[in-house]
Amino acid sequence: MSKSPTASREGSLEAPTRHPLNWQDPEFYNEAPLLEELERVYDICHGCRRCVSLCDAFPTLFDLVDESDTFEVDGVAKTDYWKVVDECFLCDLCYQVKCPYVPPHEWNVDFPHLMLRAKAVQFNRGERKISHKLISSTTLNGRVASLPVINQVVNAASKSPAMRKMTARMLDIHPQAHLPEFHTHTLRKRLRNHQPRAIEATEAGPTRGQAALFATCYCNFNEPGIGEDLVAVFEHNSIPVRLVDKETCCGMPKLEQGDLKTVQKYKERNIPQLIRLIDAGWDIVAAVPSCVLMFKQELPLMFPTDTDVLKVKKHIFDPFEYLLHRHKAKLLRTDFHQSLGTVAWHVPCHQRVQNIGPKTKQVLSLIPGTEINAIERCSGHDGTYGVRNSTYAKSQKIARPVITRAKKMEADYLVSDCPMAATQIAAGLELKHGETNPLSLLRKAYGI
């Protein structure tokens, strides 16, 4: 399908407009109009090619076109369209930083949402592997793997070559992919008796001075130390912190599978808990960018008329976004006891697309004797994409330029706000220090 003949210019000068995801309309799952829209957008992308360096979805598309008989999208078999869909892990960067044809441009290209629609069609047709459904069930996996005895077996199996070969066959997890450790002493158990400090909350910008921590599956079960670091840093800055009473997965792993009904189920569990806290005067923070993005962007686009979802969007913050608001109001403590030297800071995709700016860099740069060098490229992990048999090698290929840049920096630390991205990058480096999360570095600089 050819591009619109009425289009007289390339790109758009207006600010991007994101349209809601019309996922509850039965027509959303109709394959015929989906294939028609895929052809239209693929044709535009083929003529543009700005996104070739972002992920493997675009090289896959361009190779299909270039190797076709016509050298155009009409020469690509419709059955091959799904090869492009399978390579997209919904990082959203093409929409946010590359594509000149996003709305309000008349071509109305939203590549991530088109890929999400295609994944939803695949999921509804039962084409997602059971293994992919299992590994994206992060709350269930964490609860089981953190149980005594089972926990020891799971952690030992992740280090056993024989067991890894078995999981490669049964769960489609590449035998060389890094698997995180599970903890029996989860973050929720560690903070079970934690009480917010009796400090009067002080407003700063949109923040109200007291924060409820959405622990996230990863920080609760896999890296509880990050949550502890957040609490220590916030309380050092006179910000009372408490845990959200109850929570389940934010829904991002299921969104990436196209399982939108499960995303809705998780939303119906989480939003009332968060609203209760917000109405009581608490802000919400989460230490994993994907979880913040889920509440800031994805759920509001799925449920644009849900006033509670929109209220959570207004009151959830990235931790360093929160801290910088405090600093601008002269409420952030700068009594640092230790410089950090040179820090290579990887900027996660799901933090970049929140459009909040380099808040982590701005806060860490307050530490005397500290130089922050940003790396704004995808790590290639993106949850399940980085561990599956079919995509592990591609994930490593995407990570390679990031690792190369980090090596050239000869930095004292490598950190990423996304703990999974940090692990992926750190595996290719010989680091001087073990801290790979910026919250851990901030706590270290404070000496607390």
Can you walk me through this structure?
- There is one protein chain.
- The chain is α/β, with parallel strands linked by helices and 448 residues long.
- The chain has four domains: 26-124, no CATH class; 130-170, no CATH class; 187-324; 336-446, Rossmann fold (3-Layer(aba) Sandwich).
- The chain is 47% helix and 6% strand.
- The chain is built from 22 helices and seven strands.
- The chain has helices spanning 31-48, 57-66, 81-87, 93-98, 111-124, 130-135, 138-145, 150-157, 161-170, 187-190, 217-222, 224-236, 252-255, 260-279, 289-302, 307-315, 319-328, 349-352, 359-364, 392-409, 419-426, 438-446; strands spanning 211-213, 241-243, 283-285, 316-317, 341-346, 370-375, 413-416.
- A four-stranded parallel β-sheet has the order 2-1-3-4, with helices on both faces. It has a three-stranded parallel β-sheet with strand order 6-5-7.
- The termini are far apart.
Structural class: alpha/beta
Strand order of the largest sheet: 2-1-3-4
Determine the strand fraction and express it as a percent band: 5-15%
| Overall geometric form | globular
Taking the sheet with the most strands, its summary is: 4 strands, parallel
- Terminus-to-terminus distance: 61 Å
Spell the H/E element sequence: HHHHHHHHHHEHHEHHEHHEHEHHEHEHH
| Integer-rounded radius of gyration | 22 Å
The mean pLDDT is 89
When the domains are counted, the total is 4
The overall strand count is 7
Q: Could you estimate the helical fraction of the residues in percent?
A: 40-55%
Low-pLDDT parts are: 1-8
> What is the count of helical runs?
22
